[in-house]
Design brief:
Elements: H1 22-25, H2 38-41, H3 46-52, E1 59-62, H4 69-79, E2 83-88, H5 94-111, E3 115-120, H6 127-138, E4 142-148, H7 152-155, H8 158-162, E5 165-168, H9 174-186, E6 195-197, H10 199-208, H11 213-226, E7 235-237, H12 239-246, H13 258-272, H14 276-288, H15 293-308, H16 314-329, H17 334-347, H18 353-366, H19 420-434
Parallel strand pairs: 1-4, 1-5, 2-3, 3-4, 6-7
Helix pairs in contact: 5-6, 9-10, 9-11, 10-11, 10-12, 11-12, 13-14, 13-15, 14-17, 15-16, 15-17, 16-17
């Protein structure tokens, strides 16, 4: 299927009353026109096969804004032989929903044709509204397609989830956004034929739109409509015009090359170096440049163990909570969570003792210094009479007994005097004083 039918007029639409927004005009016409979701729509993938065979069951499409959920539903509407109805989690109430559902039942009885019901922003439905859908989905009276930017495992009832397949759409990368923008410039349904754009301008727009194709196309249209033409009526969109249209200046940040790695390196080293001001600056630069917030959150989780460890055992809990919150709420609000986690970790006492301990132990094992498990620690039958017997630690004074747990005197974990590790260090010293000399 071609992106545009041969009957499409050669002259491009002019902006004005009755003209649909550029993002609406550029919606895909077929599966092959959908960009950036190859993991679920590539050749041979389940969802693609189901759509092309018109054998689609109930599904939930989950992903960030502008990644193509509604576009995918529109493609399904164009390709299915089944009746297609639309609704919205924002506009529809229970009465409206029941009317649509009963209409689907009536249509199936009279015409023998199934109905696909697409509900945009289905997470906006409360529990009672979602419960209304359940029996109709369960009985096969409708095929549900729900679209949501929120994690369906939190916002959609479990019974409804269990009767639907969940497909997660990914945020579009810069390459995909750039392809969409170039298509909008060249397409007969896109910008006015006298509008052109520079490569660096489109690249900047692709970099700052945070994976949101709708936002990118809206900004491109604003730039085209607000840039004065030259004497011949031509409009050239440079990076300057595009920066103004999105109110976001370009920063030196290449997601695939040195600046990306330099910035994350500066960020991690600032947190490790206990400088919250520097850490927040580098965090802000990454957010501004459109870095994936989940990437930042994952790096904070690693840092919480590698550079803070047991000096502040709460650090890993806070970092993991921040990572889950970022996934749960998304941008732009997630920037606040990332800032909280960043400043807490930067101000926390630091220790890499746990990191050094496991590396030292791994080094011994990798270099052939493997040790046997002492017989009294092995599972299975008890050791023979006369050999060392395992002693249950909780039976000892202070829940401690003196026995060998590994046949070596080598020290792997050496807690520092920082934060809670000072308490742990003193505790280990006390236990060592109770151990017999071997």
């Amino acid at each position: 299927m071609e992106l545009f039918d041969e009957s499409t007029p050669s002259s491009r639409p002019k902006a004005g009353a009755g003209t649909a927004p550029l993002a609406a005009r550029m919606r895909p016409r077929g599966i092959e026109d959908i960009i950036g979701q190859e993991h679920i729509l590539g050749d041979g993938k389940l969802l693609r096969r189901a759509i092309e065979a018109d054998r689609l069951g109930s599904i939930i499409l989950y992903g960030p804004p502008g990644c193509g959920k509604t576009s995918l539903a529109e493609v399904i509407a164009k390709t299915t032989d089944r009746r297609f109805e639309r609704s919205s989690g924002v506009l529809s109430n229970v009465a409206t929903l029941r009317k649509i559902l009963e209409g689907a039942v009536h249509w199936k009885k009279m015409k023998g044709q199934d109905t696909i019901l697409f509900i945009d922003e289905i997470h906006r439905f409360n529990k009672s509204q979602q419960d209304v859908l359940l029996p109709y989905v369960e009985n096969g009276d409708i095929i549900l397609i729900g679209a949501t930017t929120h994690n369906p495992f939190y916002f959609i009832n479990t019974p409804l989830n269990s009767r639907s397949q969940i497909f997660q759409l990914q945020s579009l990368n810069e390459e995909a956004i750039l392809k969409i923008l170039k298509r909008a410039v060249a397409s007969p349904l896109g910008l006015n034929e006298q509008v052109s754009a520079t490569e660096d301008g489109l690249e900047h727009l692709a970099a700052v739109c945070e994976g949101d194709a709708r936002r990118a196309l809206n900004a491109l249209e604003i730039a085209a409509l607000t840039t004065p033409p030259d004497a011949d009526g031509n409009v050239l969109l440079t990076r300057y015009e595009i920066e103004e249209s999105v109110q976001k200046k370009a920063v030196n940040y290449d997601h695939d090359e040195d600046e990306h790695y330099d910035t994350i390196s500066a960020f991690i080293k600032s947190v490790r170096g206990s400088d919250p001001n520097a850490a927040v600056y580098w965090l802000a630069k990454m957010i501004y440049a459109g870095e994936d917030p989940r990437f930042i959150a994952r790096r904070l989780v690693i840092l919480a163990s590698e550079d803070i460890g047991n000096a502040d055992p709460r650090a890993i809990t806070l970092a993991v909570s921040a990572m889950q919150a970022v996934e749960f709420i998304g941008m732009p609000e997630a920037r606040i969570t990332l800032s909280q986690a960043t400043t807490y970790l930067a101000c926390a006492p630091k220790s890499n003792a746990a990191y050094l301990a496991v590396n030292a132990a791994l080094d011994d094992i990798e270099n052939g210094r493997t040790l046997p498990v002492p017989k009294h620690l092995q599972s299975g039958p008890k050791p023979d009479k006369g050999t060392v017997q395992y002693q249950y630690a909780h039976d000892g004074d202070g829940h401690f007994v003196d026995q060998e747990y590994v046949p070596t005197d080598k020290i792997y974990y050496e807690p520092t005097s920082q934060g809670y590790e000072e308490t742990m260090r003193k505790r280990i010293e006390y236990w060592n004083s109770l151990r017999k000399k071997r």
